[in-house]
Amino acid sequence: MSKRLLIVVVEPDPDRAQPIADGLREAGDHDIRIIAEQSGLARQVAELRPDVVLIDIANPSRDVLEELALASGPAERPVAMFVDRSDEGMTRAAIEAGISAYVVDGMRPERLKPILDAAIARFHIFQQMRAELAATRAALEERKIIDRAKAVLMKARGIDEEAAYALLRKTAMDGGKRVADIAQQLVMAAGLLGR
Amino acid sequence: MITLRLGYVPLIDAAPLIVAQELGFAAEEGLAFDLVRLGAWAQARDMLGAGLIEAAHMLVPMPVGQALGLGPSLPAMDLVMFLSHGGQAVAVNRDLEGRLRDGGHDFAFDDARAAGLALRRAVAGRLRVGVPFHFSTQSELVRHWLTASGFAPADLELITVPPPMMAEAMAQGDVDAFCVGEPWASFAVERGLGALLLPGTAIWAAAPEKGLVLLRGFAETREAETGALMRAIWRAGRWLDDPDHRGTAAEILSRAAYLNLPPELAERGLTGRLTISAQGDIRHAPGFIAFNAGAASFPWKSLAALFAQRLAGRHGLDPQEAMTRAMAHFRTDLYRQHLRPAGAPLPGASQRVEGALAEDRSVAAERGGMILRADGFFDGFTFDPAASLSAN
Q: Keyword annotations for this protein (chain A) (predicted)?
């Protein structure tokens, strides 16, 4: 039996860190720690001496972990570089999913794979959720701004709602722009003119 | 129109990529750039390695580190041109600023020897200096300057801090000083956390800072796109080196999609007119950042050798082998091939003695003459790759 692994997840957003940690627990009997605080990361990781560190590929703190991975002797090196020792397919899948994994020297790829698979799955779900949320928010914002632009036109030109929308749409099409962009400009201009 | 994905980290020296797209230099070459803002230098390397971006804005020593096997095993990466020289500043925290002033230092912002000696007198024990990445020009500048100023290696602790977090690291007391690319040094001054002590150019007049890095597989198989990409960026660099364009460049770079900061902040480094202290003292640093002038974009193989020798020394590698390996990744051949048609001045040789030019100098070029930028170190250091390679 191999020993339990200590896996550290570096993630400031608790809504994101928690599902990743849950996914990792399902993947095996591991000890999972979440580090949310970015300052002092090097010290925290060095003290914990984890077997695996998982971190968003775009997290600026990665560059701090890189330094740890390059520490002079293996004895002082709290993390090594995962991509050194594993197959290229796994590396690419992780990079595409937006994850980087730092792993202690000598971990076998077959021990790492289930961990990484679980992390990749959770990262995907979260990214999807975030994209959907952003799209919904943007759509709502656009609806609001178009409604306000229609109101401005109705008042200024004495036309009804349908005609106001038609006018917005025609202007947008003529200018090769989106209705929401024209609406935004109109509302801004109306604000400047004090209407 | 062919779309290329280019990765950049938000700094003023990403300007050639952004300007090439925004002002149509890319379109002129039949390219559209999909500019991908990155959060970490390691991300630039990994995404390039996985083929998720076609080219990356990278710290010049990064491809050297890769060539020496000090990074993850990814496909071979080549630096095809430099994007900038200089653009860094050294900052000290308020406490050190006070001690330096008490010791009589004038913060003239142009004398690395005086500043280094003053700092040596002001610091009793170890000095903790933030640098953006393990493989960075900043790290080399700080080591060179401070060891030449009387700091023993044991007195120095270099700590990696991502550029946007540099000011916060100073606020938290994690670092006493740092060396970082603009606008992140000015950002700390603006927050009243420290004072600027030196521009990078005061330590090394022409320190190569960022390079355009491609996968070797891409550069060698997709020649047409590689050439078009290099020419678009080279022309953007030429546009950027007109002093009258620097204000406009600051506006473009500062947009929400790019740096997302007040343009006034980016303008400081781009114009070389920097506010160095919380009291609002202003210093003018001519040539604070260069993109193209004086053959700044030519990727001298001797610079690959210089960085390789230093990295080899710190990582216990054979220096001769390291220099030879690194030089193969600085593609002066591709620079000549692709930028000759654009009319770029091309030097006769591809390596030289580094640090030898105290002033700008005109030299013979492939066609006619050209001007090479002054590249002296503050302490007169020179590096001759030929001598280092033949030495045993």
A: Phosphoprotein
